[in-house]
Amino acid sequence: MYIDRINPDLPEGRLLVSERGFELKDPTLPISPVPLEQKADKLFQYIEQHGFEKKTILNIRRTYSRVSARGGPRSIEKYNALLRERPADKTFLARWLLYDYYDMLPSGKSIHASNYADLSPYYRNLVDNGMRAGQKAGIRNLTISVEASVTTNFMHYLQELNVNDLTQLTEKQVRDYTRNGTCGPMILYRVSVFLRRYASAYNDATVASVLHFFPKEKLVRRLYQALTGEERKALEEFLLSKECPLCKRDRAVVILMLYLGMRSNDVGNLRLGDIDWEHNQIKFLQGKTLGEMTLPLRPVVGNALYDYITDERPKCGEDRLFISHRPHAGAYGKCSINGITNRAYALAGIRKGNVRKGTHLLRHSLADEMVNQGNDITIVTKTLGHLNPNTTLGYMSSNIEQLRSCALSIEPFPVTSKYYRHE
C-alpha cells in the first residue's frame, strides 16, 4: 500500500485512518474558519457537477445527515463516535471530516489506511523525515512512497516486539522478519536504502549504527523465460487480427508496450498532449529516471491509439490518455495496465501455466527483438530510455534462450553419464 504522509495536499497527509478511528496527521495545520453547516451546500453542488455516481451522492448526503444531527462543535471525537456507530460509512465520514476541517473537496481517490497510523511518534517522525530526505535527494515520489511503506511495515513489526526505538534492534530480529514468510530479503534492502538516506541527511548515529544488520546490495536478477519468437508472433497476430476480442483501449495499451517497450507506469501516465501527431512522435517524462523520452509513433501504434481516442475513449476533461470506461466517485480513474496485459496473454493463448507474465515481459521482448535484428546495444539503450548501457545488458543476461545459444557442447569430452546424471 503506497502512502504519502508528508504532503498536506493529499488526504493521507491530513488524516490518518486506522482500526482505532480517525486522527489528524498534524493538529497544528490551519483549520477552516467556516462551520460545516454554512458550507455543506458547496460540497453538494460539487459532487453533482463533477459526475459522482448516484449511489455515492446518496451516501454522502445520508452521512451528512448523521453528522449534522449529532450537532455540537467541530471535533474529531464526534466523527469517531459516528464511525463506531456505523463503520461502513468510514469513507464518507472521512470526506466530510476533511471538508469540515480543511475545506478539502472529495476526489475519486480512496483514503488509504496503513500501519503508519499505529506507529509511535518516534517511528512516525523517522518515516516522515526519511521521506523528506528522499525528496531533497531528488528521488521520485513513487519510489519514496514504496520505500516508506515497506519501512512502515517493518517498524510496526518492531513495535509488536516491544522494540520501541532502533537502539534496541538486534540482527536476529532483522533476520526473523524475512523468515516469518511475510516478505523476502529484497524488502529489507529497500528498508536499508530508506534508513541509510535518512541517517545521512539527519546525521542520526543511532540509525547508522544498525545499518550493518541489513542487506547492502540487491539480489542478483533471476533468470526467466523470455517471450519466444513464436509467442511474440502469436501475440502480434492476435492484436492485429480484425477479430481481436480486446476493447480498443486494451488493444492500444498492449500494442504500445510491445512495439515501443514503454514501462507500464509510463503508459498509465501518458497524456493526450504527449502524442505529437504532426511529427509522428510520442514525448513524455519517464517516471523512473525523470528523463525526457521521444519515441517514434510507428503506424501500428498510431493507428491503435487513433481508433481508441476517436471511437471509444469517454468524452471528458481528463487529460490522461488511458482511463476507465466509466467514472467512479465522480472521476475517471486509471486502468490496470498489468491486468490488461495478462488478459491479452490469456486470450492469445500464450504464457500459460506457472511462468512469468506481466508488462515488463513486453519491454524485454522488444530488447531481444532489436538485438536479434542486429541493432547495436547503444540503440537499444536509447530506445528503452536506460541511463546506462549496463542496465540494458542486464536485460540480455536474463534471457535464458540467448544464454542457451552461448552454451558449449560437452560431446567432445570423455565424460560418462554417471558424472553428470542427476538421480
Structure description:
The chain has 423 residues and is mostly helical. It has 3 domains: 11-115, no CATH class; 119-213; 229-404, Intergrase catalytic core (hpI Integrase, Chain A, Orthogonal Bundle), CATH 1.10.443.10. Helices cover 53% and strands 5% of the residues. The protein has helices spanning 11-14, 36-49, 54-70, 76-85, 90-102, 121-136, 141-160, 171-179, 185-202, 205-210, 229-240, 248-260, 264-268, 299-311, 337-348, 360-372, 377-384, 389-397, 400-406, 417-420; strands at 15-18, 21-24, 275-276, 281-285, 292-296. Strands 3-4-5 form a 3-stranded antiparallel β-sheet, with no helix packed on it. Strands 1-2 form a two-stranded antiparallel ribbon.
Topology as a string of helices (H) and strands (E): HEEHHHHHHHHHHHHEEEHHHHHHH
Work out the count of structural domains: 3
pLDDT averaged residue by residue: 86
Question: Can you summarize the main beta sheet?
Answer: 3 strands, antiparallel
The helix tally amounts to: 20
Structural class: mainly alpha
Q: If you compute it from the alpha carbons, what radius of gyration comes out, rounded to the nearest whole angstrom?
A: 26 Å
CATH class of the largest domain: Mainly Alpha
Low-confidence stretches: none
Helical percent range? 40-55%
Identify the CATH architecture of the largest domain.
Orthogonal Bundle
Multimeric state of these chains?
A: single chain
What is the CATH T-level topology of the largest domain?
hpI Integrase, Chain A
Main sheet strand line-up: 3-4-5
Terminal Cα separation, in Å?
45 Å
